[in-house]
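Notebook B, p. 112. Complex prediction, attempt 2.
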Amino acid sequence: AQSVTQLDSQVPVFEEAPVELRCNYSSSVSVYLFWYVQYPNQGLQLLLKYLSGSTLVESINGFEAEFNKSQTSFHLRKPSVHISDTAEYFCAVSDPNAGNMLTFGGGTRLMVKP
Amino acid sequence: EAQVTQNPRYLITVTGKKLTVTCSQNMNHEHMSWYRQDPGLGLRQIYYSMNVEVTDKGDVPEGYKVSRKEKRNFPLILESPSPNQTSLYFCASSLSGGFVDTQYFGPGTRLTVL
């Protein structure tokens, strides 16, 4: 079974500072990888995903994540955060050969301070 | 507006009293899932459905039932709720299985079982 580890449960950061949210997964086979964001009192929204091809994927609001197969990681980064980025972020993995199960990490709460 | 709706949004009930949480999507999606969200555990998949009359267990199906009689609806049934089912529940849908297509989440149902 897949597992996903988000190493930090909370990440406090000042506005305009860079941030990295870490994600490691257990599978050694090919995977699909996702980052979802959950704003307060809302459902989850897809932020970005890696299915194949370029290992660096980007979102429309300045986040990026890099798939590193050798380290089984998919860390999320942003060079300069805004107050509006305050939310909980979830990393998730699925096995494309066993297509309908999605495994989430425990979540990282990003707290952007002015 | 394309959306996933859930009802009720909040529910307080007592142990053993059967309840149903409804989920409906208006996007003609084939794939639907139910998740529960608990602090520190992220989201865990309860059941999923690939299409009408096709359902399968996720990671934590015990104590839950689902049905998929129509493409748009995917209700979650708790026949005899217990306090350990107190959680935040999300329904989600996507065009097809495998998570290649974007998964859209409902707003969540907060369930408390006393």
